[in-house]
Amino acid sequence: MFPHFGATADTLSKASTIMFRIGTDAHLYDDPEDVNIAPLLDSKFDSEKCEALKRLLALIAQGFDVSNFFPQVVKNVASQSLEVKKLVYLYLLHYAEKRPNEALLSINSFQKDLGDTNPLVRAWALRTMAGIRLHVIAPLVLVAVGKCARDPSVYVRKCAANALPKLHDLQLEEHSSTIEEIVGILLSDHSPGVVGAAAAAFNSVCPNNYSLVGRSYKRLCEVLPDVEEWGQIVLIGILLRYAIARHGLVKKSIMFSLHGKESPQSEKDGLDVEFSLEKDSSMDLKFNSEMASMVSRCYIEGPDEYLSRSSYTNRIFSEFHNAKFTSGKSNDDVKILLQCTLPLLWSNNSAVVLAAAGVHWIMVPCEDVKRIVKPLLFLLRSSSTSKYVVLCNIQVFAKAMPSLFAPHFEDFFIISSDSYQIKALKLEILCTIATESSISSIFKEFQDYIQDPDRSFAADAVAAIGLCAQKLPKMAITFLEGLLALTRQELLTTEFGSIEGEAGVLVQVLTSIKSIIKQDPPNHEKVVIQLVRSLDSIKVPAARAIIIWMMGEYNNLGEIIPRMVTTVLQYLAWSFSSEALETKLQILNTTFKVCQIAVLVLLKWGKINCCGIKLLNVQSPSIEISKSSSSSSSSSLSSSYSSSKLTSSSSSFSSSSSRSEEVRVDDAFLFCCDVDATFFPLLNLVFRKKGFSVAYSENIVATFCFPFISLICLKVVYYLGVSKAQSKEITICSRFKFKTVSRQLTFIDTFNVQCIYLSAAMLYYSEILSNAFPCLITITAEGKCIEPLNVSIKVNCEETVFGLNLLNRIVNFLS
Amino acid sequence: MLQCIFLLSDSGEIILEKQLTWHRVDRSICDWFWNQVISQGDSFKQQPVIASPTHYLFQIVREGITFLACTQVEMPPLMAIEFLCRVADVLSDYLEGLNEDLIKDNFVIVYELLDEMIDNGFPLTTEPNILREMISPPNIVSKMLSVVTGNSSNVSDTLPGATASCVPWRTTDIKYANNEVYVDLVEEMDAIINRDGVLVKCEIYGEVQVNSHITGVPDLTLSFTNPSILDDVRFHPCVRFRPWESHQILSFVPPDGQFKLMSYRVKMLKSIPIYVKPQLTSDAGTCRINLMVGIKNDPGKMIDSITVQFHLPPSILSADLTSNHGVVNILSNKMCIWSIDRIPKDRTPSLSGTMVLETGLERLHVFPIFQLGFRIQGVALSGLQIDKLELKVVVNRLYKGFRASTRAGLYEVRS
């Protein structure tokens, strides 16, 4: 029974839809071809013609090509019924270009219609005629446009204005002056409706023919509020361009300052005094010049030579009128433009408001710019669709002049219904406009955002905190505390780190902390220590990688960290095999940094008297002699470092004393400095176990330390002890090579130490391949213990600047 | 300038295309667009401006219909967006709604409208008033006529007089037996209460909506007793700027019928009518929620249609929520809606319950944001008051009506 009932309901609803659709054109859209269209077109009844045309339109709407009906449709152009006419026009315009010859047939009818008494008929005829893209009829259309431009009906004149760009598109060189002349006529039309359309025509026909605007500039300004909204948008742009081209940028305006910055050779002294923007870094300067060039591009549109010329005249002009422009308001043209665009900031059309705001932004002295702020902010609330574009604009404004929006930071607070893009933009603006007085409220908001269900947005909020801290270093401590609290809090949740968003937030927290620390590392030593201690509990690989990076970066910082280093490295060595790839890479990186000093010493070759051979092999990590201290490398890292008596590798290296008694043995490193006879048996034992024969000498001279933690291989390729009676030296030759391949970086390090009697030779060869930034760095260091070291570096890189930078940095580092 | 407009259904089907210039835009752009929509999801649909490989696209979405405009030249993006909004407004006004079927059923009208609204990519006639006279909207009579006679033209034979008028928004020669004008203050309250329970932001977005039925070409002035509280305003084109600049008086020739005369904003308000107090505690994999709603500052009128809605955080598996007043609904997308309507005199409405967290999760770390809805008739919470409404040339009898109402706009309570 129920299915039956359901079926009835279904039919009923179907029936009701059918009822509802009766009388509409629904059936035509659904089945446009269920009758033969061609005979209908030739029917003598207008209604049948209409039906046929509607069917054709339906086919066009659905993307079918029905141009084969063109000849029959064209015949109907002479119909007296306006509806048929309209439909024919719609069809004609869609296909005229495809069927030029047949389209010509319709011209006579248009010509006739142009003389019709009904302005609607004249306008339609003109629109359609101009819409047919045929060079042959262009002169005819031009005459028609010229005639219609003087038509008594406003509507027809408006259509004439709209027809001009169509003609211009045909690129009729010989007629261009006539077209421009008609633009001029229409621009000075007494009806505001026509002026708007004429402005649009001006923009596409002759955007740089300022004499046309100049003729009636004042009137155009005055008529601006009465022009319809679309015309206003275009006209504002034209008037602004004219004013800039004619008078240059207004002294004291933001744009002038920016423009002046771009060309420092022009009256620099005068400018710096005027320049009231807050700017503290070269970044701002760079941004400013970008802004200036953007402005030139947008507002002094046109070919390049025009651009250069106009900026040149600007400069001359501003210099010339230096005295005149002290108030920034003495130029009549500028004044009237500002006056007439001011009320448009109240327009209901957001595009008009934005265009008007643009004029004021560019032309008004700095202190008056704030009048555009409220209208812009109001746009954000009153029209949701334009929110994104408006925000993009505000962002540009705010970057150039943060003080403008600083008091209105509350308007950029985020609500849950904002789309992700809008949220991101708002965050960025908040960062830009944050000041010392507002930052505490903003920070409070940010903290709220971190708990937002949208985790990628939460991560963005964290990043924003980092940005704010860079901007306002005074707040850095507060921010850091907040962020650290987050790491602790996030710890609880990382257990089920499967949720991607959480990991993202945590990584972002650490990135922000990293950027804050970077600003002033000595003050944040404790933070680094705290983070390193939390390594145990943080499971997200990317987060671990950042902490490990910090460890390496700041391994020299303060008192405590250098003492932690060894233990941390032990811990990392212990956990190495279970780490994710990116973490592994950072561990290697950190180890390398920690050993930088070591390597340096190594490179300074003959001076050292140390021996350190890493014997870690993860597959068989236990070495007999290491058992004594292997427990220290277990996971309880945080407590062990302070109790560890071991000095760090770096410190033992930097003391290049000839005799040091300290000997360190653990499972990560076998380390000996000026090994004396008592220790040798131990060494011997190790090497014997590995199947080497060891020779002993009182003085071990040529050795190297390389505490890389390498999984891949550590191979003592050959070991040669040459003991000569007179020198009593032992020489260890080893070859070390490891290769790590990851998505980001490829290292190929080759270490070659070949000690041949009395002249130990070393070759360090390292190649770093980066896929992320295509480059290949080759570092070669060669030397013998009695000769100076040769270091050569080669960077092969597609991007020269990057390569040079890198090269410089390496050279600095090595020297 | 715009080169082409496409109307797409919510399944990505092209309902119709309208080429605007000679630079034809191939339909394949829509395929590209829809592929992006599918691959990038909702965030893509919320982007109003998109750079495709070949064109700049502007889109707005109304009632599931995507209005997509393409261009290859530089133009003010807001102009395109505003225009599309206008098209959508006009269409939904004409078709009395907006959906795929309505557009398909009336595709000829849609074509005619588009053709009239935009010429060569630049807006031509967008004034609804004039459009209505040029192309008559479908109605019962015309439908019946077309059924009976098989013929009905909706294209007007004559050019509307308003095209030449300096008040294009007003149809000429209107006659009414009874002259009446109604002014509504419709306000929306936006508020943010942060996780500490502090009112971070509270402001009013308001509109002055006028419904006028007056003979001839009336010239009205409207003034407020306290215009200084208005933080910012936007006007219908009919409002003259000068009187507002000098005396803050609205002087205008109204369009016929319903329209939005002005919108305004009042910022930095200090009091909210309703409080929402959320409490969430979580422990050992469950979370207890307790939500109380009550009147904070009595506006003096009945507050009704109170609703609280929130998204359950994604980490919540199930929720068991009950309330001592009103109805609680949990939708399939984890949206929870608590409809309270009016606050009873004898008790404070509260919602409480337990929620089970995802396995492995001990405590809740992401907290929901509560959106409050309410409506108050008869009061404009901004405090804006209309002083008087005057007609310059007095017609024999003019009935004037004033109303005010406030409802919650973007009203959020974070927990």
UniProtKB/TrEMBL annotation, chain A:
SUPFAM superfamilies on file: ARM repeat
Alphabetized Pfam families for the sequence: Adaptin_N
Residue ranges occupied by any Clathrin/coatomer adaptor adaptin-like N-terminal domain in the UniProt entry: 40-596
Transmembrane spans: 699-721
Superkingdom classification of source: Eukaryota
Record keywords: Membrane, Protein transport, Transmembrane, Transmembrane helix, Transport
UniProt cross-references to InterPro entries, sorted A to Z: AP_beta (IPR026739), ARM-like (IPR011989), ARM-type_fold (IPR016024), Clathrin/coatomer_adapt-like_N (IPR002553)
Subcellular location: Endomembrane system
Region (Disordered): 625-656
Family under the similarity heading: Belongs to the adaptor complexes large subunit family.
Protein name per Swiss-Prot or TrEMBL: Clathrin/coatomer adaptor adaptin-like N-terminal domain-containing protein
Species whose genome carries this gene: Hevea brasiliensis
TrEMBL record, chain B:
Name this protein carries in UniProt: MHD domain-containing protein
CDD domains, alphabetized: AP-3_Mu3_Cterm, AP3_Mu_N
Protein's UniProt keywords contain Membrane: yes
Signal peptide: none
Domain annotation MHD: ranges: 178-414
Sequence similarity: Belongs to the adaptor complexes medium subunit family.
Keyword flag Protein transport: yes
Any Pfam family: Adap_comp_sub
Entry keyword set: Membrane, Protein transport, Transport
Subcellular location: Endomembrane system
Coiled-coil zones: none
UniProt xrefs under PANTHER family: AP COMPLEX SUBUNIT MU
Chief localization: membrane
